[in-house]
Design a protein that fits this description.
This protein has helices spanning 11-20, 54-61, 79-99, 137-156, 184-190, 207-220, 236-247, 260-269, 278-285, 293-299, 306-322, 333-346, 351-360, and strands spanning 3-6, 26-30, 45-48, 66-69, 104-108, 159-165, 167-169, 196-198, 201-206, 226-229, 232-235, 253-256, 365-366. It is an alpha/beta fold. The strands form three sheets. The protein has a seven-stranded parallel β-sheet, with helices on both faces. Strand 5, helix 4 (137-156) and strand 6 (159-165) form a beta-alpha-beta unit. The chain starts with a strand and ends with a strand.
């Protein structure tokens, strides 16, 4: 069985390609030849193809039985690119697969594509999308991409299965590569470049379990269905308390209330910006607790323990830091704000916030 993986030079895609190589020949698409090193020593057949180029994707998919469409754009700017890659490309991939007689396409989405769950509720695949109106480009595009891919599957008679990873940590296939978008939060914390977090909830999963979930979806998933590939529900504050404990690194973090996202959005509209993007704060302020019960029941999916995932991620970042992979690190609004927090902590200025915690009834500082 020949398999093609788009986005294989990315964090999740590389792990999918690595696991798929145990099943059969693997073909991967790429845009930047220099990024092929991120696949390490995995034996692959590389094909240059942009995921928006239908003809190039057809060449890549020719002779394949299964396609893993892992390509995606994580971020909120530029909005046009977010929409093209996350909303439009999944449909193009399914249509290209249909033209080449590919039987099944597994599309990598995100729990963001299902949308945030209501406060205090654990979300599932069947939830009504609640992201609309929050002005979040990434979730909106991911949600649209799912709908486009599923509709194309019905229209072309291709079996389309959607997988929805939660927040992904872990180690990339190429351990020398700097952290990808999701893991960078731990890296920034360990390097003293993270000044704050929002007191929201998330679900954390290991990239190796997400990759395994992709293969299980290809083998056992029901066409037209989506499967949450999650791990452990946890608040952001508790998460970084664990990171501090496991790493032995302690930097003060300002714990912002969930209303911070709306305030940042208003400030952005007024032409003001802070060290963390408004969309980043809005996303972190949501409830992303999600159940993987359906994937466990129908796919046989399992997630490893949270401590193992965090320890592996921390140890890998420590290797990068010790090797000088980040150099001196250029100054940014984020690093300056984090430095300001450390100065305030050393001078005792944060003591006011520690006292205020008793009166406002919520955490204001972590870890």
């Amino acid at each position: 069985m020949t398999i093609c993986v788009t986005g294989a030079t990315g964090f999740i895609g590389a792990h999918v390609a690595q696991l798929a190589s145990d099943v059969g020949p693997v073909r991967v698409t790429y845009r930047d030849e220099g990024r092929l090193t991120r696949l390490g020593d995995i034996e692959v057949d590389p094909v240059r193809a942009d995921v928006l180029d239908r003809a190039a994707l057809r060449r890549a998919f020719r002779g394949c039985d299964t396609v893993f469409h892992c390509a995606g754009f994580v971020g909120s700017h530029p909005a046009e690119r977010v929409w093209e890659v996350n909303a439009l490309a999944p449909r193009i991939a399914v249509e290209a697969a249909a033209a080449e007689g590919v039987r099944r396409v597994v599309v990598t989405s995100s729990v963001a594509g299902i949308g945030p769950a209501p406060p205090g509720v654990v979300g599932t695949e069947d939830d009504f999308y609640r992201g609309g109106g929050l002005g979040m480009a990434y979730p909106d595009a991911k949600h649209e991409g799912e709908a486009e891919a599923l509709a194309a599957g019905v229209r072309t008679d291709v079996e389309v299965v959607i997988v929805n990873p939660s927040y992904v940590f872990g180690v990339p296939v190429d351990r020398s590569a700097p952290g990808e978008t999701s893991t960078r939060m731990i890296g920034n914390y360990m390097r003293g470049r993270l000044p704050a977090l929002v007191d929201g909830d998330t679900n954390v999963v290991d990239v190796r379990d997400v990759a395994k979930g992709h293969l299980l979806a290809a083998e056992r998933g029901t066409p037209g269905e989506r499967y949450v590939l999650g791990g452990h529900d946890i608040g952001w504050t508790e998460l970084f308390e664990r990171v501090a404990e496991l790493s032995g690194v302690r930097h003060p973090l300002l714990v912002l209330p969930t209303e911070a996202g709306a305030i940042a959005r208003a400030a952005e509209a007024a032409g003001l910006s802070g060290p963390i993007s408004a969309e980043g704060l809005v996303l972190m302020a949501q409830n992303w607790r999600y159940s993987s019960r359906k994937a466990r029941r129908e796919l046989g999916y399992r997630a490893r323990g949270l401590e193992r995932t965090l320890t592996d991620t921390i140890d890998w970042y420590r290797e990068l830091i010790d090797s000088g992979a980040f150099g001196g690190g250029r100054l940014s609004a984020l690093s300056l704000a984090a430095a300001g927090m450390r100065v305030a902590d050393r001078t005792g200025a944060l003591g006011v916030l520690r006292v205020a915690e008793r009166y406002v009834g919520r955490r204001m500082l972590a870890p």
